[in-house]
Amino acid sequence: MKKIINTSKAPAPIGPYNQAVLVGNTLYTSGQIALDPETMELVLDDIKTETKQVMENMKEVLAAADMTFENVIKSSIFISDMHNFKQINEVYGKYFDEATAPARETVEVANLPRFVNVEISMIAVK
C-alpha cells in the first residue's frame, strides 16, 4: 500500500503529482527544482545557489518521511547544461558521505520545468 508524503517545508507540487510516495520502506520522490517553498518563486541566483535550494527541498521531503540523505540509495540528476556539472556536483556532494553515497546518474536534457538548470529526484529506503 502506498502512502503519500507531502510537507509545507518543500514546494507544493505544480502539477498532478505528490512530493513523494512511500511504498513499504521505500520512498520515491518527485523531482525537486529550486522553488522557495514559502514564496514559490525560483531561486536562480547562480548554479550553486540553485542546486543548494534543490537539495534543501529534497532534505525536507525526506524528513517528512522520517528519512535523511543517509537513507538515499539512488539519485537522478537532470541538468540543462553539462558545463554546470562540476558546480552542481560540488554542492550535491556536501549532502552525502562519499563512502556511502547513493548510486546516481546525471543526464543533460534539452529543457526542465520552468526552464530551470537542475532537477533532482531520489529513491530512499528505511
UniProtKB/TrEMBL annotation:
Any Pfam family matching the protein: Ribonuc_L-PSP
One GO location term (cellular component): cytosol
InterPro entries, A to Z: RidA, RutC-like_sf, YjgF/YER057c/UK114
GO MF annotations, alphabetized: deaminase activity
Domain of life of the source: Bacteria
Family, per entry: Belongs to the RutC family.
Annotated protein name in UniProt: 2-iminobutanoate/2-iminopropanoate deaminase
Species annotation: Winogradskyella epiphytica
